[in-house]
Amino acid sequence: MPSPRFLSKTRAALLIGAAACPLLLALLLSGCQGDEPQPRRYREIALKSKNGPVQADAPIRLSWTLPDGWVDQPEGDPLRQAGFWAPDPSLAHTGERDPLAVDVSLVQLAGDAGGLDANVVRWLGQVKIPASYAEQVIAAASPVRVATGQRGIVVDFTDILSGDLTESKSIVGAIIQGEGYTVFVKAMGDRERLVKIKPQLLEFCAKLNIAEKTP
Amino acid sequence: MNPKWRQKAARHPVTKAVLHPAITLAGLLMLLLLIFFGTLYQADHGLYEAQRVFFGYLIWVAGVVPFPGSSLVLWVLSIQLAVMMTFVLPLVWKKAGLWVVHGGLLLLLVGGFITQMMAVESQMTLAEGETGHYTMAYDKWEVAVWRQIADTNEVLAYVDEDLQPGAVLDLAPWPARLTVVKYHENAAAFTSTVTGGVLPYLNASGIASMEPRKPEKEAPQNAPGLIAKLSVPNTPDREILLYGLESRPLALTLGGERVLLQLRRRHYPLDFSLTLKDFIRTLHPGTDVARSYESYVDLHDGLSSRPVKVWMNNPLRYKGYTFFQASFAIDQEGEHSTFAVVTNPGRLIPYISSLMVFGGMLLHFILHFLGYVRRTARK
Fold it and tell me: Where exactly are the structural domains of chain A?
């Protein structure tokens, strides 16, 4: 028969052991990982837009002619109608790869897409130029007319230094607003390369066809 | 009355060792040091990294010397409190205040562990007119595979902690599995312009190569990348590349069914939804400085729906979730509002424990004061 002293010691040890269990458990849990990854399974309802997909609402059809050397990008951003790489024009026929090829995107949206000012501010933000330049950029914008007659403007940020001096990218872009739609042609890339491809970008815009669908 | 077994346990050497004041003092001192150095560390490494390093169990100083992390110290202090209450604190009415104070402190520590283990911080961004049914993590990622049935996605997802090289991710019920080749917490991705038109991987965005990058100071800014081997019976293995910044999932046909695959911020489905009706930003006159941000949302749950206004310091609280107005954006689709979403089962515990500590001290004072009055009256 164990002595009462032994029993009391055992009970105390057991109780202290029980109190320490959470610590040991936590330490074990933090150190252990299962061998087989176990997946989470769940159901979710995708984001719903009241207006539906904006691109589908645009009452137009776009067609274009690529300048020399430009190549199609693989399908990527679903908002884009199309994307292209625009390399240095001097490399167009040499077959050399241009690591600084400019990313050109073609986007069509329904309505005014938030308005001219908001979109210029958004583009400025993408290359870290303060929004306060928007007014100056719009005032200095040059007009553009596409092959089907619609008019727009071309904004050029290449002569504005970014607020972040490590940012070497800039934007040249055209915004063409029509009845119930807006078309964006945006070239974004290295500032010097943009200056080189700007004539091609203007040529691309001038040859752009915006066929308005009849209701 | 204090039972004999408690009295004996209180005198036991193990109890005395566990409750030694030096341990308490050392624990409190370590917490002070952890908070001080954690704050300094945060300045250089960011909040998320500081939390990860200093709130763990062990910190390796200079890579070799172990130092207790906050979790370990708090566990030790919690055990001391529990042992104190179980064996030592006298079970007498005169000490009721001390019982309440100790209970409050223990509850505070338990609340801290509940928050650490169970709280989830995420975000929800909605364009005007959009309805959201899930929130998204800031810095936790998942490889999600899903099929779309009507407007519902049936998702199977592996969390980023599972993406260790060599890990096999079974995509059942689809007859396919992924074997992780490389996973970079932060990476830069390049299109085929860099690889001379070669596309060695299956990828939705034309990404041809990827390089690891040093993790960003703020973990939410990381863009992870995964290269994995896709094995489907009766077809040759292919390597796929998934990148965190891709907006488009990779479409695959598995077992005759079209499924989508994406490396994305972890999704947390809700059993209710929010529709952003309007977002209003008011500026101080003549400046770009915001005076207020306000989101007008409709909260839908089952068949019921009600309008709610969410604005700065006035969050929406519903079913354990708190939606704070966090930020906004303007893009081609118009205005977007972002809510920081927090769910924390231990949210109320610090308030309750603070009240207990205050109430316990007050009770202790009152009981002693009454004792003093009684003793004085007897004299």
Answer: 1-30, 54-212
Q: What is the pLDDT of residues B204-238, one digit of tens each?
A: 777 888 899 988 878 888 999 999 999 988 888 88
pLDDT 10s digits, A33-60? 456 789 999 988 876 544 433 333 446 7
> Residue B48: pLDDT above 60?
yes
| CA–CA distance, A59 with B147 (Å, rounded to integer) | 30
CB contact, 8 Å: B148 with chain A? Answer: yes
Domain ranges of chain B: 4-119+347-378, 120-132+269-343, 138-266
Cβ distance A47 to B126 less than 8 Å, yes or no, reads: yes
Class of domain A54-212: alpha beta
Asked if B332 and A30 come within 8 Å (Cβ–Cβ), the reply is no
Alpha helices by DSSP H, listed for chain B, are: 4-11, 13-18, 21-45, 47-54, 70-83, 96-118, 349-378
pLDDT at residue A26 in the model? 53
Min Cα separation B368/chain A (Å): 31
Is ipTM beyond 0.90?
Answer: no
3-state SS assignment for residue A127: coil
Tokens of A159: 């002569």
Q: Which residue has the tokens 């036991």?
A: B12
